[in-house]
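Deliverable D5.2: sample structural annotation.
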Amino acid sequence: MLEAALGGVGLAYLADWSVASHVESGHLVRVLEDWMPTSSGLCLYYPGHRYVPAGLRAFVSIIREVRRA
C-alpha cells in the first residue's frame, strides 16, 4: 500500500510510524484527519486455546516487555 500511495495510485490507510518520514519530506500528505480514530498502539489477536505455539508465545512476551518499557 505504501508503494502504491508513493506512486500516486490512491489513498492508503497506514500506521503513522510507517509513513512519518514520507509525510515530513512531503512525498505523502495526510487526508481525512478529522475522521481518524485514535489508537493506543498495536493490537495482537490470537486464538485463546490452551496450546499456543512457542513462537507466538515468545512474540507475545516480547511485545509485553516492550510495552512496559
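Annotation notes: The first helix runs from residue 2 to 6. The chain has one domain: 2-68.
The annotation will be released with the project's public dataset once the embargo ends.
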